[in-house]
Amino acid sequence: MKTRFTEMLGIKYPIMCGGMMRLAYPSLCAAISNAGGLGNLTSTMYKDKAELVAAIREVRKLTNNPFSVNVTLLPSMAKGPEQYRDYFDACAEEKVPAMEISGLPLNRFENGKYLQKLKDAGVKLFHKVGSVKHGKSAEKAGYDGVIAAGVEEGGHPLNENVATTVLTPRLVEEVAIPVITAGGMANGRSLAAALCLGAEGILMATRFINTVECQVHEKVYQELINRQENETVLYGNSIGLQGRALINDSIREVMAVEARNGSLEEVLPHISGQYGDHIWKEGNMQTGLIPVGQSIGLIHDTVTCKELLDRMVKEAEAIIKENMAKF
Ligand SMILES: Cc1cc2nc3c(=O)[nH]c(=O)nc-3n(C[C@H](O)[C@H](O)[C@H](O)COP(=O)(O)O)c2cc1C
Hints:
Blueprint: H1 4-9, E1 15-17, H2 26-34, E2 39-42, H3 49-62, E3 67-73, H4 81-93, E4 98-103, H5 113-120, E5 124-129, H6 132-141, E6 145-149, H7 164-174, E7 179-182, H8 188-196, E8 201-204, H9 206-209, H10 218-226, E9 232-235, E10 243-246, H11 249-259, H12 264-271, H13 276-280, H14 305-324
Helix pairs in contact: 2-3, 3-4, 4-5, 8-14
């Protein structure tokens, strides 16, 4: 399966992993890259340049294949510009193969200085967008590709709420750089559909949680298998940052606070991430926000990254051939 995306990065399969706070560590990143996809190392889990450089080098010990680094550029949520300078310097100096940026585009951070620095270092830059307007502006700024993240996605879908099935072909109509589809992607059917919509590849996050190499608590795997596509909810419009999360006790409280126009102070404890370890390491699925997408409905097992990617590509090829035969 060859696309402009696989050719650009020299990867076997057009499948990348998105940023996953608290989960996208070197071991998972390398497992995905070794399986033929593009693994992800999520920078915001590291406190400074030295820590991120060490993590990048750890990935390189575990795989010779390309990988990407996610930077969630939301200055209000991090320690400040210093930390972002650290991340960008680390990625440029280590010449990482690719980066997935979300939030503010690189051209709007410190006059685009780091965009140029990263491009000069040969880093392929992808911006995750929820609208055509943002996609066009990323292309104009010099990004190498855009990730069309529809409202189905886990994490923080843009509050314009455009679905993946419309956002992808709209971006394909409007930009010349490769478009990668995100949000609701989880199996071979998703991959085949994304290619038919004009995408050059897909980005998944939620589906990668149910892999052996993600190393979350057994109860997390089971919960995601048990839950269905209608068991996530959008929250956060009252604080100006929409998110999607699994329905549980914490999100019900957040929704109740938002419904009565409660204060930010009441919402913050639930969304601050303080329960991360309870969720992922201890398997407590009721306390804290679990930022998964509607794609949970398509998760039926826990497999290795290699099994997942091989199976998806085989399935996508079979579906495309089967449908070609109809004409
Ligand atoms: C557990 C989890 C953590 C995430 N953390 C981040 C993050 O730190 N930065 C980011 O840009 N996106 C983050 N996302 C969003 C994903 O990168 C991706 O855009 C989205 O989940 C794709 O939709 P899917 O979950 O249906 O595959 C996260 C998603 C999940 C499931």
